[in-house]
């Protein structure tokens, strides 16, 4: 066995991992105890990385050879690299020759390595001469970039993870860190235990696991963050809680901001935001002075924020207005203080460093600055680089949909799932004359639109660097060789460039380190200067933070400690930006505010996490969450189907009551795309996932779309004929079956398909329609689920539209267990049949009940309950039963619970939920 230190490919925390491998096979993963981002901890996703790289998973999901479609809609056929790159060069070259360089575009990813990003940026802006290169980081971090540059002068988060250990007050806004950045949240929990006087304020429309830990929870209305921040500053000015000396010495523009916030009184802000005036005063006092409220004390306040601020048509204003609070109170440039934007992807920061956005150039240079363009041209040995602004993510796909962009190159991202307004995105992918998708996986929906598929390496196979949220650069290392014919992303871009322009001298690289050295040279003298850093230093001393200029031994943990900022006069700038409501306010026709967000155990479009049934244990299937009052008003029971409709589209999915959601609001997880949730409209148009609903309206400053808010209508769906099929399948076959089932999903107005299981692999298919479908469709479904065998038992009543099929597994010496099941027509029995199969309970005694429509559950079978602890598969039922026997304080009862069931003792991601269950359970008297 070999061990290789690398970095997790999921969120921006940037956790170090140790990969265990035997030959060409990854066999295990654990947290790196020496990595300063996580000190050995991993979340539920990170702990299962090796399972997503298992050979049986990879052979069903990986793209292993170049593939070409002869015509759109045809099945892709295998080709060779020489032919694939030749075709790509010919088609891109033809488009450029006929229509100019801006007729092509590149859409890349925050999951690429810095070296990959750099080569793609140089390919587009240097070789081809177009700035039409953008990234999915535009969907998550561009508002943070714009906010930092507008106020502090540079895209540089000034704080670090260690600041949570020094903060007197934590202000978390627009972030469910407990789920989105779980390892960082473990550090917050540790810090609060070590410093009981620390105050935690959480502002979020949903009462998330993060909000549950708060000393003060502010359930503001969606999109009203700017109003909240202006209101807090109004109170601070009224009470004399600002730092006039800091404002005078280190900032400009405060008079305009002071005039703007004068009208943001507590009463007005409370009315707009839906908050209590007294809570606003408390929040302002804690932010300015910590828990003591002592005007003479300058406590340290750290703000943590993410997509709730960024994904907005006012994203720049939200970010800048929060930074205003830090500048006004001097809460920056010292331990425990500062505005700290949490990046969503593992290398969104690295992409920003190399200029991998349509408006940037290498080393945080601005495309609009002629001097910056000249510097990059000189570095690349070119007379110039193009000055015309490039198309950002939304603009790029709108241009392709309009026919202006003829050829698209998409690398390591899945816009057919993740982009807003999917109708436009899919029209773009269909209308573009040539689409290249460079991917490690064959399963993302975008692959269905590709004329050419190029296989890329992924985690465990790549070499290079990434930069996490605290500006820390870590090595990514290969533990196993690339499978099949997969190539590294930077290598594919270089090979394409040399085919497109034979003999060019721009891409002499033979290793990722050679690319990185050129990137390093571009940073000399810039705010992110890493001229003192090298691969060798990263090998010897581990991950390092920038800036780390030549002559320095280590990077800088905190920025602006001297009060000087990277602006022409060295002063930070207050941004007086007015509050504007969301782009799509609620109205009588669309009375619900839809928000989106992450699930605890899933990642993005689930190309990787979606291969593991165990990661669906916590949230098993797609749903829209509504407040119980709204459920009652709409006469909905849990699990009943609803139409969720916006101005752009409509999808059908189950409704679920949740106290975490405020009335007149709705929540759908961002992960549910067309790969797992699909259907068709009444006109026959295919629909795909939550982003069929979201708006492409974007912030004018950052061009980041408002994925966090859309006005929707929720109506009960009248789809009386339903179907549920689930089966245990061979490990080497289940994911391939799931892909085939995707082809059947569009035959229903509602359909979902997800894996399940821990030790075994299962697939669940659910659907609903107005009338019973063609029996041939059900025959096909039964065959895929292994229900076409001689030992399958059946029942059918075509007149009543009822159909049943079940297969029992009989092992000598053991009780028979249900192995596969289909319920069609009346699916009420699923409430007990589904756990009967999933939990592997004896089923022989219930054989007759399997075929009785609406049969009630046997009285001696209790449902297992909802999974809470993914690592150890502990359910809420088991936790509640255990808590009934625990006594003492909350900490004592938690310790007793963990001692008995061990839940929360592995990755710790479930600890916030355990605490909520603790509070709900009545304590046992001592």
Automatic annotation (TrEMBL):
Molecular function as annotated in GO: 4 iron, 4 sulfur cluster binding; metal ion binding; molybdopterin cofactor binding; oxidoreductase activity
CDD domains named in the record: MopB_CT_Nitrate-R-NapA-like, MopB_Nitrate-R-NapA-like
Family annotation (Gene3D superfamilies): 2.40.40.20, 3.40.50.740, ADC-like domains, BFD-like [2Fe-2S]-binding domain, Dimethylsulfoxide Reductase, domain 2
Any one cellular-component term (Gene Ontology): oxidoreductase complex
Superkingdom of origin organism: Bacteria
Classification via PANTHER family: NADPH-FE(3+) OXIDOREDUCTASE SUBUNIT ALPHA, RESPIRATORY NITRATE REDUCTASE
Protein name (database record): Molybdopterin-dependent oxidoreductase
